[in-house]
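Technical note accompanying the year-one report. For the benefit of new consortium partners, we illustrate the data format agreed upon in the data management plan: each record pairs a sequence with a C-alpha cell string. No post-processing was applied to the example shown here.
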Amino acid sequence: MLNSKKLYLYHLLCLFLPPTKCHSLKAKLLRWCGAKVGVNVEITSSAKFYGGYNLVIGNNVYIGHEALIFGANGSNIIIEDYAKIGSRVVLVTGSHLFTTEGPCIEGEGIFKDVKIGKGAAVSTGSTILPGKTIGEMAHVAAGSVVTHDVPSYHRVAGVPAKVIKDLRIK
C-alpha cells in the first residue's frame, strides 16, 4: 500500500527532476513509497499519485504529463506491461453512493479497483472511473470518460465512452 507521507516526498523530489528523464530514479522512489514497479518504466515528473491504495505498474509502462492516479481505502490500481497512460489522464478508485435521504446528495464512499490491461493505451485527457477494466490492447480515445469496462482489442471514445471500433478488423 502506498505511504502518503513518502508520496509527499516523492512529489517534492520530482519538482527538481527533468520531466522526461531520471525514469529509473522515479521508479525506485515509487517502490520506496510502497508501489510494485516493473522495469523500463517511464514516469513523467508531473504525474501525481495520491491516496492509500495498492499500485502495481508492469514492465515497459509509460505514464504521461500531469496524469492523476488517485486511489483510496486499500483499493488497487493495476497497470499491466506495455500500457501507456497519456497526459492528464485520471485513474480514480473512489466515488460515492448518491441518495436524497441525507443532508447531501453524496452519501457513503465506495472504492473499486481499476485495471489497465497489457498493451492498452489511455489517451490524453481521459478519465477511468472506479471499478473499470481496460482490456488488453484496447484504446481509450482522447477526452473519453470510461463508465463501463472496455473489451480487449477495441477502441472506445466519447462521454460516456462507447465502442467505436474492433481493432482486430482491418
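Partners are asked to follow this layout when depositing records. The first strand starts at residue 36 and ends at 37.
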